[in-house]
Amino acid sequence: MRAYKPKNDVQKKSYYSDRFYITPTLAKTSIYNDSVLAQDVSSLSNVVNILDSYIQADHLVIIIDPTDNVKAIKHLKEIRAYDFMMELTAVDYIASKGGFEIVYEMLSTSKHKRIRVKAFLKQGEAIETVEPLFRMADWSEREMYDMYGVVANNHPNLKRILMPDDWNDHPLLKSYPLEGDEAASWYEVDKIFGEDARDIVGPELRDAACVDRYDTERFARLGHEVPKGVKISEGEEPDTPIRYQEEGGVQLFGKKLVTPFDEIESVTLKERR
Amino acid sequence: MQVKNRLKPFFENITFEREDNTMVVNFGPQHPSAHGQLRLMLELQGEEVVKAYPDVGYLHRGIEKMGENMIYNEFLPTTDRMDYIASSSNNYGYALAVEKLIGVEVPRRAEVIRTMLLELNRIISHLFWLATHALDVGAMSIFLYAFREREFAMDLMEDYCGARLTHSAIRIGGVPLDLPERWCTDLEAFMSVLESQIPIYEGLLTENRIWRMRLEEVGVISPKLAREWGVTGIALRGSGVKWDLRKEMPYGLYPELDFDIPVANTCDSYGRYKCYMAEMYESMKILRQLVVMYKDTDSQIMAHSPEYISSSKEEMMTQNYSLMQHFVLVTQGMRPPVGEVYVATESPKGELGFYIVSDGSPYPYKLKCRAPSFWHTGLLADLLPGCQLADVVTIIGNLNIVFGEIDR
């Protein structure tokens, strides 16, 4: 039986598997190993409900409810001196858990500590913006919306930032193929030639490694050359015989070194006859 | 929302007819001073900027999406294409993040070579910044001088790894090659040349009346604004915040090295210019220490971790198991443990962070690059209102933004 592959995850997967291989996990340690971080967690737990907290790779991770995000970040910024928000992004877990993990990466320059606040958001729900606390969230929430379609409520200007405004779908979703979807292949055709010209122009080639042997306009047919633009199809390929220079003898100083074999003039054959 | 129609040529750069007295100008995306594909919509009242709206995305190549569909080693050359002025710093940031994920200790010689490349690349990046920024502001000769020295530095890079711009010279687990013979001597010769040249640049600029008039009190970033926008690097240090990850949250060899962090309290473009010049001296100071350090390291340049990193060429050609492991690592890729890391390094532009989520498969589940220039561009929306139109060019050039890493 074939392994089950979720439809909404088209990302490249490993071809090989080893059923005896046990995947190791990056160690999670207790927050009490670090007194500064333990204080941060206990202080934050008075304000919001902390679902889980641990230290992974010298980095404090706090998991909260998505509805508490503004409260938690405000507390961390104003009371716990985490003065920088370094990164704000989402991780697509739609295929496995049915939602996104929103990640807030914060830094305290006074305490020299980093902290990651995570919240799990179900698909279709929106998260409250943290833009009033950190201006940088203006752009990162736009990027999050652009790349994942996660909406931030009360955001001052929630528009796409990297992709064009009229782009279809959100490219960093696991359900979005690497070379783009169908709409992507018509995007530039529509822009440049207009939607009416779709039949004439055809979709954009978005697979960089694609070679079409019947396309004589854009691809060379080494060894099977045909004039450019000639329409050929499978089974009706013209036969282009491969000719070598040696055929008919190699011309060197006006004298042929290798003379072609002539059946009638051949002395050996004459004798045999 | 753009109107869904075919592109039509039209005079889009200036909108004249508006009810108020302001004029909307499109600065870019093809403006030579925009340092790449920056479209900046400016609302002008006379020559004063009333509102600025930076629009990015013209160089978006989906590097993060590509990263999620590549094995870890395959992605490394792609990181070159983010901040292409200082590609070693991207390689290092990525390599460090993966090394943290797989828990690999890098041999000392590799660490020395990496730090050398990073600091040399910092000099290259700063020279490039100086050249282009001065050109934007109107000092043409500096451009020629600084590019000449940058060529020497890039020759050194070429001697080491064969590439001038996209190095890929720092790999996961170490470096691919040892330094060539005479490289350290050439490096010292380059540094003595640079040391004699930087005073010339400073002589041309530091007390230059035009330079000071165009930079002083232009683009003032208050520490509060810098914190709001997540501004890092020299843009932050120019605002009087002494924050350099090499010193404050050190990684690699930096705890052992002796160097200073230049800080300016003026918060303006001129202060940042001073920081850039001082940082080049500091990088040279670091490079001199590294040349000495290099001499007493043993020859290992790749970490020994058969689970994740291929063995050396010699081992591969003599030992069966090493060759088998190499085949597995090349065809399938390494499988790091399940977990997530965020590793930040100090690139010439600011804090360059890589956030990697691994689900134990050879492809990263999520790869996010925190590029410093992204926030420096976002900052323009709050920084430009109130400036003169001519200062916009100064501010963009001064913030040292590179579009490869903004749009990714």
Overall description:
The complex is a heterodimer of chains A (273) and B (408). Chain A has a domain at 28-153: Beta Polymerase, domain 2. Chain A is 22% helix and 19% strand. Chain A contains seven helices and ten strands. Chain A has helices at residues 35-45, 69-78, 94-97, 137-148, 182-193, 198-201, 267-272, and strands spanning 28-29, 50-56, 59-64, 84-92, 99-108, 113-122, 127-128, 152-153, 251-252, 255-256. Chain A starts with 27 loop residues before the first strand and ends with a helix. The mean pLDDT of chain A is 85. By secondary structure, chain B is an alpha+beta fold. Chain B has two domains: 14-55, no CATH class; 63-407, Cytochrome-c3 Hydrogenase, chain B (Orthogonal Bundle). Chain B is built from 17 helices and seven strands. Chain B has helices at residues 63-68, 72-79, 87-102, 108-137, 140-161, 183-205, 209-215, 223-228, 234-237, 245-248, 269-295, 313-318, 320-331, 372-378, 380-383, 389-398, 403-407, and strands spanning 14-15, 23-27, 39-45, 48-55, 339-346, 351-358, 366-370. In chain B, the strands form two sheets. Chain B has a four-stranded antiparallel sheet with strand order 1-2-3-4. In chain B, strands 5-6-7 form a three-stranded antiparallel sheet. In chain B, helix 3 packs antiparallel against helix 4 and helix 4 packs antiparallel against helix 11 (269-295). The longest helix of chain B is centred in the first third of the chain and has 30 residues, at 108-137. Chain B starts with 13 loop residues before the first strand and ends with a helix. The chains are: A alpha+beta (273), B alpha+beta (408). At the A-B interface, strand 4, helix 4 and helix 5 of A face helix 1, helix 8, strand 5, strand 6 and strand 7 of B.
